[in-house]
Structure formats: structure tokens, C-alpha cells
Amino acid sequence: MFIYNDGGREKAGYQGRTGDCVTRAIAIALELPYEKVYADLHALLKADKKQIESGKTSPRQGVPKQISRKYLAGLGWEFVPTMGIGTGCKVHLKPNELPRGRIIAKVSKHMVAVIDGVIHDTHDCARGGTRCVYGYYSKKAVRRQIF
Fold first, then answer.
1. pLDDT in tens, 114-139
2. CA–CA dist 22, 144 (Å, integer)
3. Per the confidence metrics, is the pTM higher than 0.85?
4. What percent of the chain is modeled with pLDDT above 70?
């Protein structure tokens, strides 16, 4: 189950191929303008000492886990791990193994928006349902305090 979706990249005026899966997945899952997500991530990358030293301060070159996690946490999203060291793959990139709603799945060398079990990306990255999901980002549940 796959729907082609560039997250608004082309509409924002960007062209060509690039490694922007983090920007694209966030724009799609959070329903934010691609250009805003790109600018926000670019600012975080430019402010990070390690990224400055590496020369990788553009979201087109990929976004490290600590930057994407910080950005998503600031927007009320949390990471839910689905795999641990030595546990083997427990969750695959297929509808019956993922929660309903809007999530961002972390898979090997890629992040992808998944909405109600359907992959929204520029390509079908599920590998026939065999691709392992390391974890996913989802909107933090609002916890009600009961008195």
C-alpha cells in the first residue's frame, strides 16, 4: 500500500533528486509546508557544532537522528522503539504491524510517513513488507489526570 507523495517539495520549487526523506516524512505526517520544515531543519543543522564541522548543514544531505528527534519532540511527537539490540525484527513496514493514524517510521537509512498503514513517499520502500521498522514517531497522547 503506497501513495506517491513528495511532501510538497516540487510545489515549493525544489528540483532534482536529493536525500530529503526526513524533511519529506515530517512535512507529510505533520501536514506542514515542505519549505517550513526544510527551513527549520536547516537552522538546526547550521546551529549544531558537529554538523558545521562535517560540512553537512543542509537537510538535502540527510538529517541526523538527534536533530530530527529534537525537532519532532518540540512539535509534540515522540519516538516509540520497536526493536532493541539483539532482539531481531519485530515490526515490519506493513499495515497490520503498524499503528493506525499518522506516524513516521524509521527504517534502515530512511524515514517514511505512514498514514493508516499506507506509505506516503516518493517510492515504495516496504521491500514487499519485509523491511524492518526500528521505531516510529507519533503524536504524544494527551494524558488526562483523573482526580
1. 999 999 999 999 999 999 999 999 99
2. 31
3. yes
4. 95
3-state SS class at 79: strand
User: What span, in angstroms and rounded, lies between the C-alpha atoms of 122 and 13?
Assistant: 16
Residue 47: Cβ within 10 Å count: 11
Average pLDDT over residues 64-84: 94
Residues in the chain: 147
**C-alpha 145: how far from its chain's center?**
30
Going by C-alpha positions, the residue among 113, 106, 108, 95 that lies closest to residue 24 is 113
Which cell is 70 given?
529534537
Neighbour-count burial for 25-35, b at 16+ CB within 10 Å, e otherwise: bbbbbbebebb
Q: Strand, coil or helix: what is 94?
A: coil
pLDDT higher than 50, residue 146: no
Q: Are 114 and 98 in contact (CB under 8 A)?
A: yes
Cα angle 116-121-124, degrees, rounded to a multiple of 5: 90
Distances in Å between the Cα of 88 and the Cα atoms of 16, 35, 91, 138, 144 are 36, 37, 9, 22, 35
Tell me which residue of 62, 71, 80 sits closest to 136, measured CA to CA: 80
DSSP annotation of 132 reads B
